[in-house]
Amino acid sequence: MIHTILQSSQDVPEGAEILTDVEPVEKTLSIIELITSGGLAGQIIIAILFILLIVACYIYFERLFAIKAASAIDSNFMNQIKDHVSNGKIEAAQLLCAQVNSPVSRLINKGISRIGKPLEDINTAIENAGRLEIYGLEKNVSVLATISGAAPMIGFLGTVVGMILAIFELANAGGTIQMDVLASGLYTAMTTTVAGLIVGIVAYITYNHLVVKTNKMVYQMEAHSLEFLDHLNEPI
């Protein structure tokens, strides 16, 4: 009997040993599958965050190009203005300002139109025009600040919704913990959090970059305005 059992064990093919050493299959998950696995609630929140990301990118590039165009001014512009003003060619100076479409040229044109009045009145007119120009440069930039703060909170809202769904599914499972039951809620919680943080970080960085660019443009406007006022204050 024992001999028969030993003989049977020796007759087992070598390939049978391979069946006991099955290698685990590595499971991969793409971004699309990750989003679709989060359920309807997660997909809605991801869609909202995606729209906010598009809006943030549009505002950033639109303002960046606008500020770049506004800061492009001929280095010889102020010299020509001062020559025209010194020679009494006020109309030529105004025509030159009209040909240059920039905040600096509009400020100088406002100051030229006040020539003949007290210097304090000219300065006040330039400052008022400067406030309007700054308001135009900062158009929609505050929306980026709003997105940078709202996007993470929307992501955290998805986290709460996902955890509620996970707990609800767990309660309906009769106390038996099954990961496939919890997967949908957990996917919603994690994907929305990551998406919200990504959108918030992008909006925050772009907002601060535009603030730096705008401040640089404001300094340029102030420098040219002071140069123009100093020229008017020079003794003839």
Strand content: under 5%
Global outline: rod-shaped
For the record, give the distance between the C-alpha atoms at the N and C termini, rounded to a whole number.
129 Å
Write down the Rg: 34 Å
- Counting H and I runs of at least 4 residues, what is the number of helices? 10
Question: Low-confidence spans: pLDDT under 50, at least 5 residues?
Answer: 1-10, 12-22
- Write down how many β-strands occur, each being a DSSP E stretch of 2 or more residues: 0
Give average pLDDT, whole number.
Answer: 78
Order of helices and strands: HHHHHHHHHH
Subcellular location: Cell membrane; Membrane
GO biological process, one term: protein import
Membrane topology: Multi-pass membrane protein
Transmembrane segments: 40-61, 141-167, 187-207
Would you summarize the structure shown here?
The chain has 236 residues and is an all-alpha fold. The termini are far apart. Helices cover 80% and strands 0% of the residues.
Please provide a written account of the structure.
It is a single chain. This protein has ten helices and no strands. With 236 residues, it is an all-alpha fold. α5 (77-86) runs antiparallel to α6 and α6 packs antiparallel against α7 (103-112). The longest helix is centred in the C-terminal third of the chain and has 55 residues, at 179-233. The N and C termini lie far apart (129 Å).
Layout of SSEs?
Layout (H helix, E strand, L loop, with lengths): L1 H9 L4 H5 L11 H6 L2 H33 L5 H10 L3 H10 L3 H10 L6 H19 L3 H32 L6 H55 L3
Family: Belongs to the exbB/tolQ family.
Membrane topology: Multi-pass membrane protein
Pfam families: MotA_ExbB
